[in-house]
Amino acid sequence: MDFLSKGIGDFLRNPWIIKFIVAFIGLLILRGLVSLTQRSLSRYIADNETRYRVRKLITLFGYFFVILFLAIVFKDRLGGLTVAVGVAGAGVAFALQEVIVSVAGWVAIIFANFYSTGDRVQLGGIQGDVIDIGVLRTTIMEMGDWIGADQYTGRIVRVANSFVFKEPVFNYSVDFPFIWDEIKVPVTHTSDYVLARGILEKVMTEVVQDYATEAKKSWREVAKKYRVEEAMIDPTIWLAFNDNWIELSLRYVVDIRQRRSTRHRLSTRILEELDKVSDRVSIASATMQIIHPDLPVVKRTAPKSLP
Q: Which residue of 15, 112, 198, 212 is surrounded by the most CB atoms within 10 Å?
């Protein structure tokens, strides 16, 4: 019994053991304080965006205090561990190079403003809205794929932050939250294309002119920040023709989150207005005429069956 008590006493008198126990208890306390602070502040913040950012900021401070606490606890041992940490660090860096690049990507995302939560992006071949930015991965609510236009698929995709260094990052939201879209309306050669153009201009002004007004303000801010030329933002109709029809191309700016609904409203109004003048304007469609020459028809008789 005395031997066992002595062994436990020697074990507890080991400074390394004491430090590990203190570190373990301290980490538990810090984790509890971080969770308690996040829950307490979340009750008083109604806005989702603000609540998300506050939780992320508290987590970041939590990591900082953990590192600071461990450095204080093991401060008298850090000098002796320098060589060992250096040798081990080289091996760890090689084995975890993808993780290290992802952490570097996280730093770049935060400080270089690649994107932020709520932005609509295309990253690593995935298009969707950013719903979370972690230290290692960015979480995206996917859109597209088997779903037409800008609609969610319901899949949540996590993309490694290292992709910001490997592939282009398409951000549809930052600086200029509008995109250009286009609808092509083909009419027959016998149609009154001047009337058709006037109708389309009227419909575009009715549906998308407000977007153009807001887009001009945003473009002025973009021009102050980047070296860009003046863009044609007002709704425009371009006319072209070929052997089959006269093509009227409607080009306009639209909010990134309203592209499909705006295209629906435009298409509906165009059909309604053109239907009123169907005697003067007709929608063209591709037709195919099959012409076959008079060829002699050779009749084949079925072979007689064997008895």
A: 212
